[in-house]
Design brief:
The protein is built from 8 helices and 14 strands. By secondary structure, the protein is an alpha+beta fold.
């Protein structure tokens, strides 16, 4: 018995996950936290093999299945995934709402009103956040030279997904002032901190990073200081530079911080960028390069 993966197109029975009304989902989250052996048995009965785009039919068998924790702080709530028999780190499909779905389809919507930044609230949206974070970024789009690792977010993480043209294009998450830093300490964040941010490759160079930074700043109008989790990647620092050049009033507000974010754990991002640029300008010029060439390199950073 061969089965095509549910793509979310064509009829009410194949809606994208986030578009299914709650009353038609049953209790999705409870189902994810139920007996794992029972869930695997249901998935095995759903199809003997799956037709995966760009690949031969994949045989659905227990040896190619695994459970991934949906939340960092709830190990019992897991997603059942089908992995590539040749590469166990590659997720081919996710078993949701009694059917196998492609990761790329889990993060789609047909709702025209689902556009721009939306607060993550439902279990379906938590699953979209997980797929963006741990599957799309974690394996499919992560550079081999990128040592950044995003673990699953906590169950009640403050998160927003950027929806664009029917797809989840990006997300960012926030640690609110007063939240515990982690489950192993009594320390709390001393300022709001933008903790994680990711933009899918096909949506980069569209200004989404700047829009998310702007949304973050506008969400806390009464706070004099806002944090971004340290260390900032080189790419994130470039986004910050462009944002702060566009919105100079935010220059004194944004700080690179280590938890919990007291004043000894903060570095002003704009000041850091200026110091780095001054250091570049004062560096000895390599032989064989004139001033114009070196200045051009600096201006493109």
């Amino acid at each position: 018995m061969a089965s095509r993966l549910r793509t979310g197109r064509g009829g009410a029975g194949s809606l994208f996950l986030v578009d299914i009304k709650d009353e038609n989902l049953g209790n999705l989250e409870t189902g994810l936290c139920n007996n794992q052996a029972k869930l695997m048995e249901e998935a095995l009965a759903a199809a003997e093999d799956l037709s995966v785009p760009g690949q031969k039919n994949i045989k659905v068998e227990a040896s190619s299945m695994s459970f991934l924790p949906l939340y960092r702080d709830d190990s019992e709530c897991c997603l059942l995934v089908l992995t590539d028999p040749q590469d166990k780190n590659t997720v081919l499909a996710i078993y949701l709402n009694n059917s196998w779905r492609l990761p790329e389809d889990v993060i789609k919507t047909s709702d025209p009103l689902r556009e721009g930044l939306k607060q993550v609230q439902t279990c379906q949206e938590r699953i979209v956040l997980f797929v963006l974070n741990c599957i799309i970024f974690g394996t499919l789009e992560r550079s081999l030279t990128d040592d950044t690792v995003f673990v699953p977010h906590p169950k009640k993480e403050d998160a927003r997904i950027f929806w664009k043209s029917g797809e989840a294009a990006a997300f960012y998450t926030v640690k609110r002032k007063g939240n515990l830093c982690d489950g192993h300490t009594s320390q709390c964040y001393m300022l709001p901190v933008l903790d994680t941010m990711f933009v899918r490759k096909k949506f980069r160079r569209c200004g989404l990073g700047i829009k998310m930074l702007q949304d973050f700043c506008q969400s806390f109008p009464s706070e004099d200081a806002l944090g971004l989790s340290s260390p900032l990647s080189a790419e994130m620092e470039k986004v910050c530079q462009k944002f702060l050049e566009t919105y100079p009033k935010q220059q004194p507000r944004l700080w690179e911080v280590e938890a919990p974010g007291d004043w000894t754990q903060r570095v002003n991002i704009w000041l850091k960028i200026q110091l780095e640029q001054n250091a570049d300008r004062s560096s000895p010029m390599p032989e064989g390069q004139d001033g114009e060439a070196e200045e051009g390199r600096i201006n493109t950073n």
